[in-house]
Design a protein that fits this description.
Blueprint (H helix, E strand, L loop, with lengths): L5 E6 L6 E7 L4 E6 L4 E6 L4 E6 L4 E6 L5 E5 L2 E6 L4 E7 L7 E8 L5 E7 L12 E6 L5 E8 L2 E6 L5 E6 L4 E8 L4 E10 L6 E7 L5 E6 L3 E6 L4 E7 L5 E7 L5 E6 L6 H6 L6 E5 L14
Antiparallel strand pairs: 1-24, 2-3, 3-4, 4-5, 6-7, 7-8, 8-9, 10-11, 11-12, 12-13, 14-15, 15-16, 16-17, 18-19, 19-20, 20-21, 22-23, 23-24
Amino acid sequence: MMSSVKVECVVKASALIGEGPVWEESEQTLLFVDIAGQKIHRWSPMTNQIQSVETGDTVGFAVPCRSGGYAAGVGRSIVAVDWSTQKMTSLVEVDEDKPNNRLNDGKVDPIGRLLAGTMGKERRPAEVQKQQGSLFSVTSDLTVTKHLSQVDISNGLDWSLDQKTFFYIDTLSLTVDAFDYDSNTGQLGNRRMVYRMEEGEGFPDGMTVDAEGRLWVACYNGGRVINIDPATGLRLQTVSLPVMKTTSCCFGGPDYSDLYVTSASLGLDHSESRQQPLAGHIFRVRGLGVKGRPSNSFSG
């Protein structure tokens, strides 16, 4: 199976920190952000065109809303983005007591609740004041609930196929964790470790779950995406990429068999930039033999 895996650079995004890829089924487009570049991008594989909106501050994620447009994590605010007018409206703010924090990764659960985490602003890539972050949920009526605190870098998140398990990454812990998840209330419990990163794999960053319930984790400073079976904690497969700062991934394409992987260029020195000319671009991986699931839309 490995020999048929093909990795190609498909979006010359030149992102400082490309992140948060989401496949939009209705548009057949890939939504992603450049955190430090302060932009939300939308790329069409059909036309190879990129449309962008400037956010005016760091943007950790953007997700589709059921009512149209997007919800995005800009600075410490969840904002509504009207793509046609490029107008942003602040909905709610988090971590009001921590002005140096920013929102990082966010994703929508199967019933339309948004989960999003924060972190301290970075001195240098992956170098932050520890235990400053939190994990929040936001419901359709904009009720904000804090689920976790003292997080270093709140990062990848997704749910099991039966919605009863929430997978979560606090990057500097070097683990992928699981919680029991009550989708009715959004409550988390019974935290446990699913996988610990091995030497040379880098830092766990964004992740996605495939249609078989397995995890695909982008490895920052590891130049790879790893496939983990959460039931056994075993690594099943490694996909190597031509850039070291792989940041996140999602499945997309007409039948969800393409794995899209974002990357970052921020923090590379001159010689690393020369060795990795594709850093900050987006890659498509084909031939994995698995498919993903449609993403969820925020009900707000």
